[in-house]
Amino acid sequence: MPLKERLPQLVEVIEGRLQSFLNDLDFGASAELRTMLRYHLGWEDELAGGKRLRPVITLLCAEACGGDAAAAMPAALGIEFLHNFTLIHDDIEDQSPTRHGRATLWTRWGLAQAVNAGDALFSIAQLALLGLTETCGEAVALRAVREMNQVCLHLTRGQYLDIAFETEDAVDLEAYLAMIGGKTAALIAYSTAMGGLAAGASKVTLTRLRTLGEALGMAFQIQDDYLGIWGDPAVTGKSASVDLLARKKTLPVLFGLRESSEFRALWHVENPALGQIRAMADLLEACGAGAYVKALAGKYIHQAHEGLVGLFPRPNADARVLMALIGMLLHREL
């Protein structure tokens, strides 16, 4: 089945299973907590659910490794609940008033209740993941839970660095890569590896799947950094130079702060005008930030492609679907 047919099919199944799992939990007198979680997940208003890319990757990896998507489904659900737990807490820590054009949980229900809701999703993620006991056995479930908590430690370390960078004048580019390795790549690597684990893949294959996920996560985040400054609003759905407007120290910004005194001077202007924002984007391009970011993204894209070829030298139909999805993610217009 081609990707354009398999992808919406998987998303629909995942969406239904996520809703069923949450609705079946007993919230007792705290029923509004379920409403909060449903709101954040996009089920309480006109906003559709998210892209659910991480659980889709998990299920496709399971199928590509000769396993069954149904057996890997508990891992997929746990991963998506975990991802959304991090989004709730990220919004609080970043003081973001909106996500996808609507009020964030903490903006609508208050800081304390949003923290509580995020904690609830963390627990729900673990409960969903333990469903692997029934589909894959206790040993697989235990390993998956242990590794999920290790991933959570990577996520929080990455978030720590992200917050710390906000008050640092100079951030080393390698430190930034370590940060996105924790915040973005760690969970995607877990998503690829859990698909293989549920399929009973070998130790060598699991290592290759994890390496593939790391490369995919790094490439994806670096591409986002590029698009946050030079992306086409008609494609990204965001205003041009959105990361400069938000004063985010992304990879091209860090490169510019290191390489361009003119950019540094404009960066330190409080409340820059729109013309100054455009000038900053031009200065970044002129000092080579765009080329640097593209080249680095290309390095991780190459690693991901090599990983796919190593995993599936003679891909079957399921592996070709996975390869098509990863190809789509890696070749966004830069």
Write the layout of secondary structure elements.
Layout: H1 3-24, H2 31-40, H3 53-64, H4 69-94, E1 98-99, E2 102-103, H5 105-109, H6 111-129, H7 132-135, H8 138-165, H9 173-198, H10 203-230, H11 233-236, H12 242-245, H13 251-259, H14 261-267, H15 274-286, H16 289-311, H17 317-330
Description:
With 334 residues, the protein is an all-alpha fold. It contains 17 helices and two strands. The protein has helices spanning 3-24, 31-40, 53-64, 69-94, 105-109, 111-129, 132-135, 138-165, 173-198, 203-230, 233-236, 242-245, 251-259, 261-267, 274-286, 289-311, 317-330; strands spanning 98-99, 102-103. Strands 1-2 form a two-stranded antiparallel sheet. Strand 1 and strand 2 (102-103) form a beta hairpin. Helix 4 packs antiparallel against helix 9. The model has no long low-confidence stretch (mean pLDDT 94).
Describe the structure concisely.
The protein is 76% helix and 1% strand. The protein is mainly alpha-helical.
